[in-house]
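Hello,

Following up on my earlier ticket. Below are the two sequence lines again, exactly as submitted.
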Amino acid sequence: MENPFAEGENRVIRPPSTAVVIFGATGDLTHRKLIPALYNLAHDNYLPAEFIVVGAARSKLSDQEFRAGVYESVKKHSRRQVKDDLWKSFSEKIYYQSVDGNKAEDFVELRKRLEELCRKQSEDFNYLYYLAVAPAHFGPIATNLRAAGLVEDVREGLRSTSVVIEKPFGHDQASAVELNKVLRNAFSEKQIYRIDHYLGKETVQNILVFRFANGIFEPLWNHKHVDHIQISVCEHLGVEGRAPYFDKTGIMRDIVQNHLFQVLSLLCIEPPISLSDPDSIRDEKVKVMRSIKRFTREDVLSKTMRARYSKGFINGQAVPGYLEEEGVPKDSKTDTFVAMKLEIDNWRWFGVPIYVRAGKRMPKRITEITVYFKQPPSSLFKGRQVMELEQNVLAIQVQPDEGISLKIMSKTPGPRMRVRPVEMDFTYGGSFGIPSPDAYERLLLDSMKGDATLFTRDDEIEESWDLLAPIIETWESKEPPPVYEYPAGTWGCSEASQLLAPSKHSWRSL
Amino acid sequence: MGAENAYTKTSVAGIAGTLKGLFTSLEGQGDYKRSANTNMILLVGGVKELERVEGLLESLSLTHPSRFFLLYSDAKLGGLETSVAAKCLLVAKSEHVCCEVVRIGVPNEKNLAEAKSVVQANLLTGMSTDLFLYYPATSLQTVDLLAPLADTLFFDSRALEREQEKINHISRMPLTLVDFEWVRLADWRDAVKAIFDRGAVMSLLPFTRSIRVVASATGGTNAASMAGLLLTGWIVSRLGLQVHGYSSRSGFECKDSSGRSVKLDLLFASDSNETQPLEIAFHFERQTTHSGDPHVIMERESADRLEISVDVGGQSFNTSRSLDSGEISNFIVRYFSVGESIANYRAALRKGLELESLRRGKGLPN
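Thanks for your patience. The regenerated structure is below:
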């Protein structure tokens, strides 16, 4: 039965009283993203009045020691300067509990601590468990939480208890299914929030608003008017000390399986029934993933390629090649760049190539979605100083400069008919003044509110692995296709361009 | 230009931030608009050229607003050095249009690979990129290094006349080529076009007997000029003439599309000062018993005047056209503000280089 008091009411901004327990509290994610995000939510007055954070990790720390450590991190990583008075009131709600994820008795102690803290504040908190740990620990932690009575049933429980997990969601289809199974032993699907931080970015959320709040674009959003789509997720950084993790993963698993496919599905979905119902949107996303043509071995060889960076220059600095990075085995076959040609086999997108690429050690950090519209006939301009008319291009830049631009053709001033491309654009900074919040701020807030719209569902994860399965299988077979090389600081190798060449397309200059 | 046009030294990583800061500081001081439709990389040469190029930047800011990257070498530098400026020009009552300029200096050309990576990191996304060979003595290695970033190469083949190999190399590059010598020749090509727009003259074209092009050239005897080569190459390619042979005595033996022989003379008059076209002449077979020698003869009367004499066999008239002249900067501004069709340039260049290769007894170029 739906809550009769919710219909017709405003969507809440401030969540109910919540205790956020962060497992992996001494790790990089907590310090770089989670605590700074919570601080900024406090700054904007979005946190519930009654709110506590409990950091949990194996280290033995006091509350004060933990607070001192995260204070330094917030000063370094918060998008705003730390205000002393705000920090004082915020940090008083931060606690620490030493917990070994494999020890059931530690979870009993955790429960006692949480109950004690709740008692002190005379408040009934919802519990949100953030697993900022490696996936190998998800199972034991989830099991121990359930065993300690820290997970309550959705229908019968007095409080809301939920878990947030980070990617990677498995290593392949089988492990993703297994991971979901392990989590579902302790939590129901409604209690599981899988974070893909791209979904927390304003520009990515804006894809749906852009498409469905503007009458002019949706009629063009199909194979009749769209020539092709490109999605580029480019980083200028290398492995940055994460070689042991990255070498087992590769860019396909690190970026394509999650961020890139999430963006692709939002870009290509059918209109959902409602933007307020999380499952309505996620149902449509799953349909897109299911409609993408699966690869045969021949398709893998002709429509995908992979490469790794060799030494080069990034922004004036000489950088080593991937095989020269510390911690990377000399015989590594791991990809730091992939490019693919996808096709969605449905009424909307039939025949529209979708080119995706993701890479490390690119000339700059940029994530961009570009929709190329079909070229108009240029017969009208014959005999004029007009070379071939360029396509209209809609570009959605997710990072670094969030915004949208549209390339149109325009006459240049002067006595002759000269036509040149110009850009109409909007940037978040220029239009709205206020800086965009960090993705984690929005996602943490939504998870506390119980809004799963911006989180990935289990079937989305499994479909994305299903799509990649033939590629991974071919790449890891006894006769794998080559791993090409590209100098760091370039946009990949010529083999990536060859994916587009048969259709006379070329990668957008970033 | 105001104080905002001064260069601010910055770290490589701080280029984007410093540029943003420049514009933030301009807000509230008046109506300043950041303007850029393209990226332009200028291969400037050395410090002397760096000072000289500032004048050109002013014209380009108005006619071809871009994010400009000035690459130069200075032996006094200890390493890669970058600075930025917002070049702002008052265009209306209080409206300023500003282009961003990024200067990247290296101790010598060998360090340009690092400089390239800085350019690449700061190119405006999704916009086309022009490469301007401002300093003609820039090595081909440098041009080749940066060419993959660009869509269009701007250069002046007149400045490369003594380096035919360089021009040959450029002619093979898979970029749109804008040659300012071609822009200089616009008035001559327009004149030829205008004359043959007349039906009576056009009707003589299939009966062309001979074509003669004379241009001045510096560099001593037997030197050629790009003006002559481009004009002749243009005429040959537009008429579809096939060149079958050459001798220094009788010029080029050509055949038109119907197999008729056409004699082509390409002559260079030695000049110590400059290279320019001097004459284009078409002679046609006599069609009637009327006296006279059907022809179109265009001669440069003075620096800014072209005299044209036309005889269509029975009727004749004289006309004239003005010629643009002046510094290269005039033609650069002309290109960007008025435009120039380059649709026929590549074919003209290819044919011109073929003719020159034959003239030198080297056979056809690679």
